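Thread amino acids onto this structure.
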């Protein structure tokens, strides 16, 4: 009987240890899955941060490209204006001289109007706008219009 009782106790103890081992395996599996999930979350966060940086870089690249194109358009407009001014040499000298006096006359008139606005108006925003307009017009009209050196 002792042998049967010993065999029964051995079987019960083996079963108990088997259940404890299974339970420990499940608990260890739970912590392993939690650790794997945390690692994936960190990896996804890293990938998300990389994608956001790439989007910002593309946005900055697009903005730079737009600024370059705007600058090129501005230069193209200036070049067209200069070429139009060069084409004036085909008429009679009196007409050419009169046309060439238009820009300085308008500039003088614009600065006289700006001086009047500065003297009369007490609102800073209006004064700033008038000075900005007069300066921009002057630099546009006379910015790169110096006579070209003649080649020999």
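Threaded sequence (152 positions):
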């Amino acid at each position: 009987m002792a042998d049967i009782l010993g065999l029964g106790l051995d079987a019960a103890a083996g079963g108990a240890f088997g259940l404890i081992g299974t339970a420990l395996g499940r608990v260890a599996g739970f912590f392993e899955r939690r650790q794997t999930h945390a690692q994936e979350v960190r990896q996804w966060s890293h990938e998300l941060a990389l994608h956001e940086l790439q989007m910002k870089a593309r946005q900055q690249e697009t903005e730079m490209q737009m600024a370059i194109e705007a600058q090129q358009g501005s230069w193209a407009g200036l070049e067209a204006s200069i070429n139009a001014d060069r084409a004036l040499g085909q008429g009679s000298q009196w007409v050419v001289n009169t046309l060439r006096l238009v820009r300085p006359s308008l500039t003088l008139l614009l600065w006289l109007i700006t001086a009047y606005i500065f003297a009369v108006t007490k609102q800073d925003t209006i004064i700033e706008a008038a000075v900005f307009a007069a300066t921009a017009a002057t630099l546009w009209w006379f910015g790169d219009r110096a006579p070209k050196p003649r080649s020999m």
